[in-house]
Amino acid sequence: MRLIGTWSHLIIDVAIVILLVFGPAYAGFAGRQADLAWVLAGALGLLVAFTFVKAIRFVVHGVIEIVLIAIVLAMPWLAGFARGVHSRNFYLFAGVVMLAIWLMTDFRRLRSSARKQPTV
User: Would residue 117 count as lying in a domain?
Assistant: First the structure.
């Protein structure tokens, strides 16, 4: 059963955007690794905004977000900074948190339709 609905997911996504923006300074790294975190924060922020204004459906949001999650998890190796402990661990932490939230989210809105069905 999926536990997180649309609004909860979007609010959590905003918190992840904040994590990606301020996390590099807190984790103690800068440069290209931080720049990439900010780019990913911008991409996730745009995804949230487009979903919020209903320019894209929530199911599409989920598909795009799983691609972003894969990029976040692979970024230390794709960008060549996997030896940097702080940046690598930050990206892995952010990716695992994003994946956990994604797995718990009801992208097809089955949770809300189950509530609307009358009980016999």
Answer: no
Evaluate whether 90 touches 23 at the Cβ level (below 8 Å): yes
* Residue 114 resides in a domain: no
In a domain, 80, yes or no: yes
What is the widest separation between alpha-carbon atoms in the chain? 60
- Show contacts of 22-25: CB within 8 Å, 24+ apart: 23/90, 23/94, 24/87, 24/90
25 token code pair: 């300074």
Q: Which amino acid is at 61?
A: H
Q: Are 81 and 51 in contact (CB under 8 A)?
A: no
Q: Domain tally for the chain?
A: 1
Q: What is the DSSP letter of 118?
A: P
User: pTM, whole model, 2 decimals?
Assistant: 0.86
Q: Backbone dihedral region of 109: left (phi > 0), alpha (psi from -120 to 50 degrees) or beta?
A: left
Residue 56 belongs to domain spanning: 6-107
**Look-up of token digits 């009358």:** 118
As given in the structure block, the two tokens for residue 72 are 């976040």
pLDDT tens-place string over residues 17-64: 999 999 999 999 999 999 999 999 999 999 999 999 999 999 999 999
